[in-house]
Design goal:
The chain has 1168 residues and is of the alpha/beta class. The protein is built from 31 helices and 46 strands. Among the domains are: 11-168, Rossmann fold; 192-333, Rossmann fold (3-Layer(aba) Sandwich), CATH 3.40.50.300; 339-402; 870-1098, Leucine-rich repeat, LRR (right-handed beta-alpha superhelix), CATH 3.80.10; 1126-1164, no CATH class. The strands form eight sheets. The protein has a 25-stranded parallel beta sheet. Strands 1, 2, 3, 4, 5 and 6 form a six-stranded parallel beta sheet that branches. Helix 2 (24-34) crosses helix 8 and helix 14 (339-350) packs parallel to helix 16. Keywords: Leucine-rich repeat, NAD, Plant defense, Repeat.
Length: 1168
Amino acid sequence: MEKPMEPQYEVFLSFRGPDTRSDITDILYNGLIDAGIRAYRDNEQLRVGEEIGPELLQAIKQSKISIPIFSKGYAASKWCLMELVQMVECKEKGGQKIMPIFYDVEPSEVRNQIAIYGEGIQSHINKQQYTDETIQNWKAALKKVGELKGWELKERGKGEFTKEVVQKLLIELKKNYLAVSNCLVEMDDQVDQIMEKIGEQTTETKIIGIHGMGGVGKSTLATIVYNKLLADFDGCCFLSNVRDTKIVSLQNQLISNVLKNKCLSIANISEGITEIKERLFSKKVIIVIDDVDHKTQLDALVGVGERWFGGGSKVIITTRDKELLKGAHFQLELTKMDFQHSLILFSRHALRRDYPPQEYASLSKKALEICGGLPLALEIIGSLLYGKDRKKWETTLKKLETIPNGKVKSKLNISFEALESQEKEIFLDICCFFVGYDVRIAIHMWDSCKFSPEYSLEVLKQRSLIKIVEGNRLWVHDQLRDLGRDIIRERANFKPKKQSRVWDHEEAIDVLEIKEGRENVEAISLKFDHQFQDFMEMEEPVSLSNLRFLQVDCVDSDENNGKHFPSTDWAKRNPIMLPSLRWLSWHNFPVFFKFAARSFKKLVILDLSRSQITDEWEGWNHLKMAKNLKVLNLTGCKNLHRTPDFSTHENLEQLILGRCTELVQVDRSIGTRISELPFGNFGSLVELKFYRANIQELPNSIGTMKNLRVLTIGFSFLVNLPSALGMLEKLEEFNACECRNLSGQIPSEIGELSFLRILTLTSTRISNIPKLPESMTELLLTRNVQMRCPDLSNLLNLRVLSLGLKYQSPSHPAQSLNWIGGLSKLEFLLLCCHDLVTLPSDFNLLLKLRWLELFTHNLECLPKLPQNLSYFHFIGRRLTEKSINLSYLEKLSELKVCGCEQLIEIQGLEPLKNLQTLDLEYLPSLVKLPDLTSLKKLWRLRITVCPKLVEVRGKLESLEFLGLIGCESLKQLPDPSSFKHMEELFIYGCWKLGEIQGLEVSENLKVLCVDDLPLLEKLPDLTNAKELKDIELRRCPRLVEIRGRLKSVVSLFIDGCGSLQKFSDPSSFKKLEDLEIKDCERLEEIMESDEYRDLKKVRRPFQGRTPREPISWSEEDFASDRLRNTKANLRFGSRISRFHAQIERRRMQRLDALWPDAIASPNGSKGL
């Protein structure tokens, strides 16, 4: 055997250029380079003459591994075949490896030269240019390499495939650097968090834990951090797939990788522990333990809590079970990927680009909805769709809506199979029915069924299968929800009648109508429509013996709901037996409907919201059988004048009587009159909600409700609060929002409530707040016209603070907030205080603060802000600074600056790489902005009433929305390339703007509104704007022509364009439905010609419109209570015009990245 040459390259790629150069070859080549592997990709320019050139020959000989990529055209290329012969020769003489990739052919085709490979060889023979020996050498090489073990791409995703190839090559080449997908979307924020906790060159050994559901990117994040840190350590080891590997094998691998040699075979775990301690004690190592599912693995590999390794060592653990990370110095939870990053990741796998073309935009959005921000699903489904036409995309996505992708499902199913039976039952319940529901309600049913819900829910949370988000709402990732539902279908062999849970209405009706299998049904959800009515009128008895959850939604939500159905006596005409029923939810319950009493015996939850039941409803008597009733929800029962008899419901914990506008009397079992509200017999109540009721005071008897945790009495006529509130020892939440008559001081006894977490007193006349308990986490005090500055210095656990303070008279000093810098856990802050002159010097130390809204008239100087802000909205009318610099707010995603009358310049926008929306409003002195080219993520830019601003500079490649309002001196728009992805453009009152460039490339443009541009003479050709629906042109007296074929325009409004005299193609308005024209003399003249007869058909008399305007904020909005009730309300409570609902929805999608735990929006919340 010849001595091999010293390798210059490590891997040689052989491929047919037209087949794979811009596809798998490019992906693989970049993946190899990223992993630190020296790869050679041949260049067609080196192929001259009839023989392999010296440079190409040297590259093959010097490489350690050759990878021929067999595509359909490989055998038809003489160059590929010559390279293959040389590879075989190097293998036989120099011991080099050949690792083939079978791209779109079978190994047998290569090995036996059949099908397309047989045709390729025959084509060379037919040319009669090559000797028989050459042909035989080619065939022999194909046979030998075709027999080697290699990779078959087939239907696999190229990203996943590349990762596997690179990993194998790293092992073969003994590389430490781990491969990361070339389609990877940046994870800078998470990487920065971990790197910050690890610290630079510290001697402290640290354990970092990363947890989250399967497929969310834990391993990828660990790999990135591992690669970044490798150079700083004596030894390294990445233990992957720990879940499925024996501990002894892992111990052996750990020692072997760190010491860079094979250690003695370890006999058992105890011996392995001893070996690790003794051999690695002095080594500074970095170790990743990936996909841990049991504590014994950690105990045997790194000894959490003990010192097994040298100083400065770092251990990174990834797991689905948060409970396993108790000994970690820092824990990071990975949640779903935000909209923008999801789109990029999906597009890279499905389309090999960062964003989809217009024809695939809607389908890509649908795919993202299916994937639910799960990176694993985005990668797999994206790769599945790669190279497919639009029709194939449609059929594939339609299938995926009901049937989860097998690879995604198998990955997620690991967590489900590890659950105990009771945990599985609760998880399946949530997937089928209870996403968005209040967990405190559902827990009663599971407890009644002996499912041990407290423990089971904790396990589900630890395993990252569910979350309990703001408002105690249950949340499950869309992919996990689909997995749960698919498990139900599989268990029933895809026969609805055998399913234990039925959530589809049509299937539910089928199940009810078929006698066979009814005993399988445990939970069902359906609509009260004519189909259900027909079933209810069947004569024969029906038994659903195991049904524990029944949800019925009436299709008619009108107040007269149910009256169009004939009266049905359930007990007599169709006596359905529901002996196991625990939860009945029937909104808009028809008053004519009657129940069999025995069906209520085990009932624990009854929800009859918005129903027409009255005091005389006979169901009240049946309800007395429900001795274990825990929850009764009568929200919106407007015909109810008095409550039922509660004397038999000693276990009742939650009574909800919201919007019972006619309710005037509560049964004597708890009191006599709702205006007096005696609570003496209601000691078990946990949650009480009275809102929009004629209540003027709370009686002292409320203090007897020792178990009360939540008290909501908003929108009432309360005048004051009783001191007896201090007796509610377990109270956690108190909400008296919009009680506009409530005045004076809050009782000091509230300060003794050691469990109080949330206090909401917005829009009241409260003037003073006493010292509050240290347990407080959320305090909402905006729009209180009498509020004086409280001392909140003791609220060290406060996360959310909304504070609105009154104007002070000259006799009172300015407001003091010296305590605010000490609230180190604060994450949300809305501060509206017009007397505030300065903020404390330690304000910037609020390092957890991510959301700041600061509204003040008299603040003179903007202090240094907390550096981790993601959202900043500032109004400072009398700010004396001429320039502000925000360059240090590198994590900022949204920025709004308003009303700073003396501000000339905003500096430091260039470093804000994460900025997505920028709003500048009423800055009358603003002269210039920096170049915005570096803001690669900026998709929304709105500049309003900045009359001195001359130009907006930069190439804004992600811009989708641009609003320029009242910028009278503006002469220059952003670079025309900024309009490529533009969807909505509003330009009003920019008097010096003479042209709008860039719209000719705006394929996504949907709305174009131009108003009061006296110098504008022409618009660009709009032919390429194939999504353009709405055009408004006002007060553009010099505009002569509207250019382009406007096939998609639906609405066209033109007012005050006196020079406008033609459309370049009047016949192109195929979808126009609404045309209004006013004060356009020349256009009026030509409208009479035959060329415009089709336009005349859709023209209607001028009615006038209010000019469309982007989302605008008034001072009243700034002071409004957008923090009321939930964090989500804070995030999304802006005033939205109907033309910009879409923009706000896009904003919400992006804000999920900032607040991943606030997933259940107010509008999407469910429950009681």
